Amino acid sequence: MKNILVTGGAGFIGSNFVHLMLGKYDDINIIVFDKLTYAGNQDNLIPVEKNPRYHFYQGDICHPDEVDRVMQRFEIDTIVNFAAETHVDRSLMEPGGFIQTDVYGTYVLLEAAKKYGIERYHQISTDEVYGAVLEGRSKETDQLHTRSPYSAAKAGGDLMCLAYYTSFNMPITITRGSNNIGPYQYPEKAVPLFVTNAIDNKPLPLYGDGLQMRDYQYVQDHCEGIDVVLRKGQPGEIYNLGTGVETTNLEMTHAILRLLNKPESLIQPITDRPGHDRRYALDCSKVQALGWRSAHNFEQAIEATVKWYVDNEWWWRKIKSGDRYQEYYQKQYAGREINK
Ligand code: NAD
Ligand code: DAU
Q1: What pLDDT does 327 receive?
Q2: Has residue 337 been placed in a domain?
Q3: Atom of ligand 2 nearest to the CA of 213
C-alpha cells in the first residue's frame, strides 16, 4: 500500500480518513478523487493541503476515462471507495443519482482495479443494507433487506464487489459502518443539523416519535477500523464496524441540548421519514478479532462532536447560508410540523 486513491475524500468520512492516514503513516501517498457534489468540500481538506504526500483530483467515479487517467498518473495500488450519494431523505426525492454513483460508479472503479491489478480494493458500505433489525444484531452473513433507494443502491455496490471477488479473484474487502458523527459532517444529517440549529435557537426537526435507534460512532474510530481491515482483513470478506451500543434519536437530541445548555422546547416533532428503519444494530465480533474496537462511547462521541461545531462555525455557516442548502431545507422540512 503506497499510492492510495481515496474516492469521495472531500466528504465527511473520506476527509477524516485522509487526515488519519497522512498523520499515522509517513510512507503513503493519498490521492483524493472527488466530484465535489454539494456534499464534497475542499475546506474539509485544509489541514492536509500543504502535505507533499497529498494530491487532489476532481473527477467523477462514473467516468471511466477520468478514473483511468488518475490510476495511471499516480500509479495507484489501493482504492478506498467512499464516493457515494449518502443521504436517505434525498434518495427518497431523487433516487437516480444514487443508482448512478453507488452502483454504476462502483462498477467503474472495480473495472479500473481489475485493469491495473491493484493490491486492494476496499468498499465503504453501511449497516443500512441489513434493513431494520428490531431484535438481535446483524452479522456479516445475514441476508440483505434494503428498504430505501439509498440502502438498495449501497447493497448493489456491495454485491458487485463480491461478484468481482468471486469471478475475477480480486483482493476486495468491504466494511459496513454504523452512523458516524464528528467533524466535517454536512449539516443535513441529524446530528450536525440538530447541533447547528440548536446553537442558533432554531427548531430541531425530530422524525415521528424519536424512538428510532442508531449506533452513533465517532468518525475517527470508524476510520481506524477501516485501516485495520485494509491491513488485516481477508479478501472476499465483509466486516461490520460500530460501537455495538444503540441510542434513540430522542436520547441523542436530549444529549445535544444538554451539552449546549438549550431548552427542550426547541424539539419540533415532524412527520416521519417514509419507510423509516426503526433500528440498526451490528454484531462487530468479526472485526474485534482483528484487534479493533471503537475508542469513544456515545457520550464521548457526542461531546467531541458538539464541541467541534461550536468551535468551527466558519465551516458550517458558509454551507447553511448558501442558496443550495436553504432550498433543500425548505423542500425537505416545510409544512411537516406536528403540533406538540
Ligand atoms: P458524504 O456525503 O459526506 O461525502 C460523499 C463524497 O463523495 C463527497 O465528497 C462527494 O463529492 C463525493 N462524490 C459523490 N458522488 C461522486 C462521484 N460520482 N464521483 C466522485 N465523488 C463523488 O458521505 P459520508 O457520510 O462521508 O459517507 C462516505 C461513505 O461512507 C459512503 O459510501 C457512505 O455510504 C458510507 N457510510 C456513511 C455513514 C455515515 O454515517 N455518514 C455510515 C456508514 C457508511
Ligand atoms: O447507518 C449508517 C447510515 O447513517 C449511513 O449509511 C448514511 O449515509 C447516513 O446518512 C446515516 O443514515 P441515517 O438515515 O441513519 O442518518 P440521518 O442523520 O439522516 O438520520 C439519523 C436518524 O435521525 C434517523 O433515524 C432519522 C432521524 N432524523 C434525521 C433527520 C435528517 C430526524 O429525526 N430528523 C432529521 O431531520
Answers
A1: 97
A2: no
A3: 25
